[in-house]
Amino acid sequence: MSERGYNIAVIGAGKVGTAVGYLLQRKGHSIAVAVTTSEESLKNAASYLPGARLVRDAGEAPADTAVVANVDVILITTKDGQIESACKALAAGGGLTPSHTVMHMSGAASLDLLSSAKAAGAGVASLHPIQSFASVELAVERLPGSYFGLTAEGDAREVALRIAADLDGKVVEVADGHKTLYHAAACVASNYLVTLIYTAQKLYAAAGFEERAAIAAMMPLVKGTLANIESVGTAPALTGPIARGDAETVEQHLKKLVVMGEEIVETYRMLGLRTVDMAATNGTLSPEAAAKLYAVLKTEHG
């Protein structure tokens, strides 16, 4: 591979693939080919990846030997369900050799999806950004400084480490057999946080807040909580009625939430029980206070 920079093909140049390609170009790598599925992605790729050969065809294009000709690294940044078929198409094209590294950027998918590339002699790796991206612009902004989950074999590990370093990322090693749990943790921390905020937004709306006002009011609280977690850890960052052992306030919440419907009540109850578990396990809540809270949270308040 090139000492100065890799020649890279991006298969699935959506938000992540385009942003990764853009950032790697800035560090001296060359994006030779970008394959995408939509007109919008094609426009973004044209803007962010000047000089790349742009191909809009996720089905036929990967089998084109020109995709892998004169490239060192193939980044597969498609949806998880398309990784294996894209890799098989590349392998079927006959252009993969031991000089290639094929890498996907999925959090949940194992290296097994790249087995066809491995069988062709290519190195295989997975490099997953532990980050959330709503657009190419935000991905370009947030990728640097993010952590990346790395799963790799042989020489492909060194290639992945260099790419992570050139993205100004930090690396954590993830065993291939642990990827599903690793990705579930990321989903809870990111995706389900969105659902939690949405639930809080509904409660604020019931209290008379407009949608944007509710979000604006919550953001300093959410950011402050995250800053506390980053500073002192999860259990010590806990505040509020459960941290204080205030079973009366929790009971008042439940009685009022009944009018919001069973789903809201059960969400509050489940989160409350898990919060008592955490506080009790970490010794920040006395056994007596925990018992009172468990009793309140397990009582029907309809």
Automatic annotation (TrEMBL):
InterPro entries: 6-PGluconate_DH-like_C_sf, DUF2520, NAD(P)-bd_dom_sf, OxRdtase/DH_put_Rossmann_dom, TM1727-like_C_sf
Gene3D superfamilies (UniProt xref): NAD(P)-binding Rossmann-like Domain (3.40.50.720), ProC-like, C-terminal domain (1.10.1040.20)
Pfam family name, one: DUF2520
Occurrences of domain DUF2520 (ranges): 147-275
Residues annotated as domain Putative oxidoreductase/dehydrogenase Rossmann-like: 7-129
Coiled-coil ranges from the UniProt annotation: none
Protein's UniProt name: DUF2520 domain-containing protein
Native species: Candidatus Aquicultor primus
Lineage: Bacteria, Bacillati, Actinomycetota, Candidatus Aquicultoria, Candidatus Aquicultorales
